[in-house]
Write a structure and sequence with these properties.
globular, 6-stranded mixed sheet, 2 domains, 429 residues, Rossmann fold, 5-stranded mixed sheet, alpha/beta, 15 strands
Length: 429
């Protein structure tokens, strides 16, 4: 890498300043969450359908959802209070390396265990064939969920990273892809993301017609990664109300208020942050036909994107690095092919796991990105740095963006310009 280091050694990196971004701060206090869930579930349309002695399966996915252990535990406790027998199962398609052990490890990282939940956790990749969609695609379901007397779906409702439609990431997707395990997820993705908004409800229809969906517990988060709303819906209400909840979630979606930059630096990528490692609805790094909606604020437009590291919670899954332009040897060393490739093969988006050019230090990775930008002021590049696409309350911007920040109603400077703080090896940590 000495040759590359010499080529970029004179590339300047500007000073940066911390910026506070302002969003809607409304949230449910952590201590209130169990009570909210109890009230939501305790309607005759939901709680009245849970009978003593029934086996009730509760989904838990692979995303880093705020307060997920508290939420799932509250659902478990409510089911117990009705005299039924709950169990939790991983509902995460092919994530966790498409193995029961890998999926259990994902749940453990979120503190969802038999000890913390007070009920069994049943993990398998075995599925049951439910039938075909109207277009002839096979639909599959987790074996344990199929054997249960009822299922409670639990998941976050938000914009999908790869497709648009009335139902995106949410309860319907959980019923189809989450509960479908690797076989089910692969069957859905076979249609291509350009058709996902149309075909996913077809798959869901088969699931709902062959499963006692007791309820769906839909979660909406604000831009600060806090629980904004929890809504428990019965099976019919999921179909009716999820599209409106999605619109509400889109309104709250965090974003970078800077519209355009030369280089976007993302500290960490990971499956706990987004299915794509970093949410393209924020970063603009779409790996599929998904695009921002007309009339809504879009993601930042960056000429080059740098990803410096992989989250520990991603367990070696580097899905999403393929849309970055530059990364680090640190991230490559943490990447585990056996964990990542099943996810890529299932989604069919193999471009998402291609490795970009890399540097041996954070400093050189950023210099590389600046160096390969076209038609910019390389003495004063526009650079935005974020921790990840989920944590957006504070970002860093370069000196060239200071005036734009000062003039923006949703941003304010939170300090003075300063150097990056690279260590003797050129790294930030």
């Amino acid at each position: 890498m000495e040759t590359i280091t010499n080529l970029i050694k004179d590339t300047p990196i500007p000073k940066m300043v911390k910026v506070r971004q302002n969003f809607d701060k409304t949230c449910i206090p952590e201590s209130d969450i169990p009570g909210v869930i109890t009230r939501e579930l305790d309607r005759p349309e939901i709680g009245g359908k849970i009978q003593p002695g029934q086996k009730i399966a509760i989904t838990c996915g692979s995303r880093g959802i705020a307060n997920i252990a508290i939420i799932v535990k509250a659902i478990v406790d409510y089911v117990k209070a009705q005299g039924a027998n709950p169990f939790v199962f991983p509902a995460m398609g092919s994530h966790g390396g498409a193995t029961p052990e890998g999926q259990l490890e994902v749940l453990r990282s979120y503190h969802v265990t038999e000890e913390t939940m007070g009920c069994p956790i049943r993990a398998t990749m075995e599925t049951v064939y439910l039938g075909d969609t109207v277009e002839g695609s096979p639909v599959y379901q987790d074996k344990y969920a199929h054997e249960a007397d009822g299922v409670i779906l639990c998941g976050r409702i938000k914009a999908h990273t790869s497709f648009r439609g009335p139902y995106e990431s949410g309860l319907l997707k959980m019923s189809v892809i989450g509960m479908g395990k690797q076989h089910g997820a692969e069957s859905v993705h076979e249609s291509g993301f350009q058709n996902m908004g149309r075909v996913m409800p077809q798959f869901a229809r088969v699931v709902f017609d062959n499963t006692n969906i007791v309820a769906g517990v839909g979660i909406i988060e604000n831009a600060y990664d806090q629980t904004y709303k929890i809504a428990a819906l019965n099976a019919a209400e999921i179909w009716e109300q999820e599209p409106e909840l999605l619109k509400e979630a889109n309104r709250l979606l965090g974003r970078i208020w800077v519209d355009k930059t030369d280089v976007l630096v993302v500290d960490k990528l990971g499956k706990n942050i987004s299915g794509d490692g970093m949410d393209p609805n924020v970063s603009g790094t779409f790996g599929s036909p998904g695009r921002p909606r007309n009339g809504e604020p879009g993601p930042i437009l960056a000429q080059r994107t740098v990803v410096l590291d992989l989250t520990d919670e991603s367990h070696g899954n580097f899905n999403g690095i393929g849309v970055a332009d530059v990364t680090t040897k640190r991230l490559i060393d943490k990447s585990i092919v056996d964990v990542t490739y099943p996810n890529a093969l299932t989604s069919t988006l193999v471009n998402m796991v291609k490795m970009p050019i890399f540097a041996h230090s954070d400093e050189n990775a950023i210099k590389l990105a600046v160096r390969v930008c076209n038609m910019i002021d390389k003495q004063h590049p526009r650079i935005v740095r974020i921790a990840n696409t989920m944590e957006l309350s504070h970002i860093w911007v370069s000196e060239a963006l200071v005036e734009e920040v000062k003039d923006h109603p949703h941003m304010e400077l939170d300090g003075e310009l300063q150097d990056w703080g690279f260590d003797e090896n050129g790294n930030l940590w």
